Amino acid sequence: MKRVLVMDDEIEVGNFFRHLLEEKGFQVSIAVNKNDFTTLISELSFDLALIDLKLPDSNGIELLKLLKNSQPNCKAIIMTGYSTVKTAVEALKNGASDYIEKPFDDLDQLENTLDKHLSVETVSSQEETNQIASKLGFIIGANKEMNELAKLAEKIARKNINILIEGETGTGKEVLANFIHHASLRYNQPFIRINCGAIPETLLESELFGHEKGAFTGAVKLKKGIFEIADNGTLFLDEIGEASLGIQVQLLRVLETGEYYRVGGESVRKTNTRIIAATNRDLEKAVEEKTFREDLLYRLDVVKLNLPPLRKRKEDLELYLQYFLGKVNASHLSFSKESLEMMRTYEWPGNVRELFNIVKRAVALMDEDETTITPIYLPEKLAQNSGHQIQHHNEDDLESYLTGWTRNILSMWDRYKDIQLDDVLFSVKELEKQVGRSFVLKSLKNHVGDRKKTADSLKITTRQLKYLLNEKGKV
């Protein structure tokens, strides 16, 4: 028979859980103070502990640490009020399996949570995490930091709270957000991504909230916004630090009340969209510089996840290479020992995204009868720290890039009977980015580095120019 420990200074809470759990056939012990708690965990072995976060003579985090030191295999659920959710998340980082919010209004949900952690028949949390991650291409690997991140992400996925993902450009923030969505109770609802830096400010409001017919010139019909389409699902706001202060005010209202107006509309609309935001900027610094609202940061930063750069998880480099080769239908290829050596010494400023682009480039340049990717198919920048002298294709040469890209697309067309359309469309998007960047660089050179003149000549804003140059986090 499984044994449960309830630690709460309120007698009624202990009695409630005793009644609920003993009916299910579990043995229940009650502690109302730290002394009771330490005595019980020294005398008895428990399968699950329910620990209140706020206690008169102690706190839940302290007792959780005592429990984990004494009985590391005992699962723990922290009980908290909404105002202490951030502290409850700290408890998850310290080994808690879950947290539940007081008051316990939804008894069905409470029982489901208890059953989940007391059941022996369910698939382990780690197995579930690995299955979802593998399906979505979220590579956890052997890196300790990534494993801790994945465990925390899986724990908070089922909670209806906002999440802020921080990480350098190209680390895979969207993949992590998609993983959280699919591990959540909203997994069968929409997951929609919008890049706050890529859409002009004048259009972003309409994209997010929709507009009524005739709201502005060109609004020839009613348009639903992202918040309406993503209702009950997840909205991933990428590059949230690039949102204007005006958009930030409207986002804050939605996060506080769940209400918004369509552009040109007069009726209040409701949404139950979960927000996962991401940034490669230091938002606390942006708050100091008055470019980001502190109250919005507070609303977004209920849980903060920091995605480590690729240079700090090089032990999993080969896992990424295998995955990316499969993604471009080139699993029959492999990287030579020299190529792998070069990649391990490279610092990867563009992170996972840069690695994927290099894999696609190498595959596109290879002859059909070759099966090993040698250093000649890698950019020269990878050789700079490794001592290799290689002949290479100039990656800044637009003609060379277009030749390689065309070769890759035609290879996909000719070689494979079935191919995922997403892979083709992704390749088209990458082409659009590279061509746009090449024209920006050419214009920038013509205007001797003057970004204002460059933007004016290209009929774009300096904000769009920064985006095309992949300088979204730079001032």
TrEMBL record:
Residue ranges of domain Sigma-54 factor interaction in the record: 139-364
Keyword Lipid biosynthesis: no
One record GO biological process: regulation of DNA-templated transcription
Pfam family name, one: Response_reg
Membrane-spanning intervals of the chain: none
4-aspartylphosphate modified-residue sites: 52
The entry's keywords: ATP-binding, DNA-binding, Nucleotide-binding, Phosphoprotein, Transcription, Transcription regulation
Signal peptide range in chain numbering: none
Keyword Nucleotide-binding: yes
Entry's Gene Ontology molecular function annotations: ATP binding; DNA binding
Response regulatory domain segment(s): 3-117
Listed SUPFAM superfamilies: CheY-like (SSF52172), P-loop containing nucleoside triphosphate hydrolases (SSF52540)
PANTHER family: SIGMA L-DEPENDENT TRANSCRIPTIONAL REGULATOR YPLP-RELATED, TRANSCRIPTIONAL REGULATORY PROTEIN
Full protein name: Transcriptional regulator
Species this protein is from: Ureibacillus xyleni
